[in-house]
């Protein structure tokens, strides 16, 4: 893993060094809830103190981190709709109507290409949905705040696609539901930040 930055990022840091306070960011007092969250994100995601201070003082709320929130909200809505329709909130995949959904991925339906991605909106039960939603919001939102919507959406969707392609190769009989592939991709990206 390389810690190289783009030249524009280096120039922004070099120009911003003169304007940034020299004290440690953790000593900043009198912050509101949102600014404390931005400071937490800076310390959680960025590897060096100068990057953290630059991000903290230059951070703007536009564009907001909407991708991970939108995906999580969509997953919850889809789960609630299927739960109400089937009157089953745990282990929905055992219900035959659930498996007939056009969103579920099954290797036998590979010709329907949208299923390689749409299975991320379906979940087995409350435990899987809760775990995925929690990790998406705890890891995905801070990553999206620092790296932007394009990088994180590409990373998440690549993880989802990798999950369906792996199931296509390894187990031709198993249906696939849940956004765990994307969540694992986010965890790997966060691990890369920790290693840096």
From TrEMBL:
One of its GO terms (molecular function) is serine-type endopeptidase activity. The chain crosses the membrane at residues 66-84, 116-139, 145-167. It comes from the Eukaryota. InterPro entries: Peptidase_S54_rhomboid_dom (IPR022764), Peptidase_S54_rhomboid_met (IPR017213), Rhomboid-like_sf (IPR035952), Rhomboid_IM_Serine_Proteases (IPR051739). It is a multi-pass membrane protein. Residues 112-194 form the Peptidase S54 rhomboid domain. Its main location: membrane. Gene3D superfamilies: Rhomboid-like. GO terms for cellular component: membrane. Its EC number is 3.4.21.105. Keywords: Membrane, Transmembrane, Transmembrane helix. It is found in: Membrane. It catalyses: Cleaves type-1 transmembrane domains using a catalytic dyad composed of serine and histidine that are contributed by different transmembrane domains. Belongs to the peptidase S54 family. This is rhomboid protease. It comes from Cardinalis cardinalis (Northern cardinal). The gene is Rhbdl1.
């Amino acid at each position: 893993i390389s810690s190289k930055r783009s030249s524009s990022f280096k120039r922004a840091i070099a120009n911003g060094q003169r304007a940034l306070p020299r004290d440690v960011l953790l000593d900043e007092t009198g912050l509101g809830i949102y600014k404390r969250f931005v400071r937490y994100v800076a310390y959680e995601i960025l590897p060096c103190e100068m990057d953290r201070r630059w991000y903290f003082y230059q951070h703007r709320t536009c564009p907001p981190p909407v991708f991970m929130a939108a995906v999580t909200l969509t997953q919850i809505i889809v789960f609630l709709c299927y739960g109400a329709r089937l009157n089953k909130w745990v282990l929905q995949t055992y219900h035959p109507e659930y498996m007939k959904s056009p969103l579920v991925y099954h290797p036998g339906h590979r010709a329907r290409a949208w299923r390689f991605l749409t299975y991320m909106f379906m979940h087995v039960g409350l435990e899987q949905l809760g775990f995925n939603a929690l990790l998406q919001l705890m890891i995905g939102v801070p990553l999206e705040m620092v790296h932007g919507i394009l990088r994180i959406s590409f990373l998440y969707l690549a993880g989802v696609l990798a999950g369906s392609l792996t199931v296509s190769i390894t187990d031709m009989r198993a249906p696939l539901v849940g956004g765990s592939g994307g969540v694992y991709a986010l965890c790997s990206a966060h691990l890369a930040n920790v290693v840096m």
